[in-house]
Specification:
UDP-N-acetylmuramoyl-L-alanine:D-glutamate ligase, nine-stranded mixed sheet, globular, single chain
Length: 272
C-alpha cells in the first residue's frame, strides 16, 4: 500500500477536459461503445448514460438490436452507427461464453483499431487482440480469471495483485473495490477511496466504465503521445464515480441512475 499514491479530488480536477467556445462534437471526443447484450441490455444503457453525463462530444453505440433499442429509448442523442471515434469502451454486460459472431466482429473492430480502449468484463479474454493503449477494469473475480488465480489471492492483497497484473499483461489495470487500485506497466500506482459502501450494487461497474470511457475519449490525442496518462484517467474516473455515489446516497441506499445523474454536479464542483 505504501507504494500507491492517493488520488484526490484536486488531482482529478486536473484531468477533466473543459470545452472551449471553439470546440465541436468531434473535438470534444467521440467514444465508441460496445457493451451490453440481449441478456444484459441494462449495462449498455448505463455505460452510455454515464459517458454522456461525464462530458463527451458524441457516443457511438454498437450493439445487438435489443440493447440498441433500450439505449436509444433512453438516450436518442446516441448514434447507433459505425463511424469516426477517438476511443473505445468494450465488454461491460457481456458474457464471453455467449458471444456470437456479430458481437465478436464488433469487438474486433474496437480491439484492432489501435485507439485507446477501456476493456471490461466480457471482453477481458480478448486482451491478446488489443492494439492500442489499454486500461482494463476488472473486479476481484474477473481479475482472478485473467491471472488464473483464486479470488481469495486477489482479495488478500489487491494492491499487489493490480501491480502484478499490470506487469504480466502489459496494460494499465484498474482493480475495482471499496478502494480502487490503478497500476500501470511503467510503475505508476494510484489508489482512490472516495466510494461509500452503498456503491456495492449491480451496475456500478458499468457506470464506472462509461465515466472512464468519456475521459479517455476527451484525452485521446494526449494518450497517443503518453500512454501512461491512462492510469491518471482511471484514478480520476474512480474519484468522480465515488463522489457521485456519495452525493446520490446521502448516507443511504442509491441506484446507479441516481449516481449517474449526480456526475455533472460532481464535475462542476471539482472545477471550482
Amino acid at each position: 500500500m505504501s507504494t500507491f499514491t492517493h488520488w484526490t479530488p484536486r488531482d482529478a480536477a486536473r484531468f477533466i477536459a473543459v470545452p472551449t467556445l471553439d470546440d465541436d462534437k468531434y473535438s470534444r471526443g467521440v467514444l465508441g461503445v460496445v457493451t451490453g447484450s440481449a441478456a444484459y441490455p441494462g449495462a449498455a444503457v448505463l455505460s452510455v448514460e454515464a459517458a454522456l453525463h461525464t462530458g463527451v462530444g458524441m457516443v457511438r453505440y454498437l450493439g445487438d438490436e435489443r440493447a440498441t433499442t433500450f439505449v436509444l429509448q433512453r438516450r436518442p442523442e446516441a448514434v447507433a452507427a459505425a463511424g469516426r471515434v477517438q476511443a473505445w469502451l468494450v465488454g461491460s454486460g457481456m458474457d464471453a461464453a455467449m458471444r456470437d459472431t456479430a458481437t465478436a466482429d464488433r469487438l474486433g473492430v474496437a480491439l484492432d483499431s489501435g485507439l485507446p480502449i477501456v476493456v471490461d468484463a466480457g471482453a477481458l479474454d480478448l486482451l491478446d487482440r488489443v492494439s492500442g493503449p489499454t486500461i482494463i477494469t476488472p473486479h476481484f473475480r474477473e481479475l482472478s480469471r485473467v491471472l488464473d488465480e483464486s479470488p481469495d489471492e486477489i482479495a488478500q492483497d489487491p494492491a499487489e495483485a493490480a501491480t502484478r497484473a499490470a506487469h504480466k499483461l502489459g496494460v494499465t489495470v484498474l482493480l475495482k473495490g471499496h478502494r480502487t487500485y490503478v497500476a500501470a506497466p511503467d510503475g505508476t500506482r494510484l489508489v482512490a477511496s472516495s466510494a461509500p459502501a452503498w456503491l456495492a450494487t449491480a451496475g456500478a461497474g458499468d457506470a464506472l466504465g462509461g465515466i472512464l470511457g468519456a475521459l479517455v475519449a476527451t484525452h485521446s490525442r494526449a494518450i497517443e503521445k503518453d500512454g501512461a496518462l491512462l492510469a491518471q484517467l482511471g484514478a480520476t474516473a474512480s474519484v468522480i464515480h465515488g463522489l457521485a455515489a456519495s452525493r446520490a446516497s446521502a448516507g443511504g441506499p442509491l441506484t446507479i441512475l441516481d449516481l449517474i445523474d449526480a456526475v455533472p454536479g460532481v464535475i462542476a464542483g471539482l472545477l471550482v
